[in-house]
Design brief:
- Two copies of one chain form a homodimer.
- Chain A is 31% helix and 40% strand.
- Chain A contains two helices and three strands.
- Chain A has a three-stranded antiparallel β-sheet.
- Strand 2 of chain A pairs antiparallel with strand 2 of chain B, so a sheet runs across the interface.
- Chains A, B: Pfam families: PurS.
- Chains A, B: Pathway: Purine metabolism; IMP biosynthesis via de novo pathway; 5-amino-1-(5-phospho-D-ribosyl)imidazole from N(2)-formyl-N(1)-(5-phospho-D-ribosyl)glycinamide: step 1/2.
- Chains A, B: It is an enzyme of class 6 (ligase).
């Protein structure tokens, strides 16, 4: 069994209105030293090990989990006993 | 300047219908080896360094970024030049 941690972020240059809203809220709460907030997604996927695991994860991200037009993704794979 | 990477996850035992929906979609795409998906949030916050930075981040998470009743969070702090 493998635990895959997937981090999905907006590409640089893509506007992030959700992050901007969070930033404005932090300013309202008097955290004035916050300069920028970017919001992304984080997923933990448990799956049975298989041949070409990285290839499978790339396909899963490209097909469903991320939008490759505007998002980048990275992931780590951990062994779970 | 500091870059804080914040990872927000649902606590163990809290139902994750969004993760379940993603899992079902992956099964429909013939990724049958996927056993569980949990969806969380990932944020990158750029902020000016300050005294008690970790204390400030904890407060920001508890007040706004995470829901401490059902979510856990972890973060890493990086120096940015």
């Amino acid at each position: 069994m493998r635990k895959v941690k997937i981090y999905i972020t907006l590409k640089e240059g893509v506007l992030d209105p959700q992050g901007k809203a969070v930033q404005n809220s932090l300013h309202s709460l008097e955290y004035k030293n916050v300069n920028e907030v970017r919001v992304g997604k984080y997923m933990e996927v448990m799956l049975e090990d298989t041949e070409n695991l990285e290839e499978q994860i790339d396909k899963m991200c490209d097909q469903l989990l991320a939008n490759p037009v505007i998002e980048d993704y990275t992931y780590t794979i951990e062994e779970v006993v």
